[in-house]
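Handout, section B. The chain below has 209 residues.
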Amino acid sequence: MATPPARLIPLLEQFDRARERLGNRMTGPFVDSGNGTGVEAPVMTDEEYLWEPVPGCWSVRRRSAGPGPAATQLAGTGEWGRDTTSPPHPSPPPFTTLAWRLSHLTELLTLRADHTAGGHTLTRDDQRVVGDAAGAIAAFEAGAAAWRAALLGVDDAALDTVGYSTYPHGSDPEDPFIDIVWWVNQELLHHGAEIALLRDLYRARAQGA
């Protein structure tokens, strides 16, 4: 395997670290607190995955139940879908559950991998939405692995190529690919932090019950 371009290596290392921490945060038994201390992280349950901490949440739902509050459709394919609506989206945006955020992140990784090194054909309608925690974690890991494999196939020239990724739901067709790599890392970091916070809130809720 060819050595990744030097400019890509720190971004790959950042991606790997963020992916590992989020994976450990969802499956445990421990996650690194940041200073090398292990903090207990029990495996996510289905109840926690679908927990709606405030009224009017957007989440993932069985298609038979229809979209949630302020949503007009369920994105994806399969028995479950993710709450969404055609633009313009509600303002302020609805609060989204852990399930919604993880599904969104998985879709982003999976589709961008396809539009970088795959068939350049996958759409949101092709993305299977998962209704259970274990299945959602597995789908995230598969999407993250596909995106990383796509990155390992690029050379230095590709990093500067505008539109190297043809992902249709972002700025990919207008930006150099290295900017897209950076952006995906930011998506993983900030959605990973949101998921970690929701896990903390769910645990605190259970302790206070």
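Note. The longest helix spans residues 177-208. Compare this with the example in section A.
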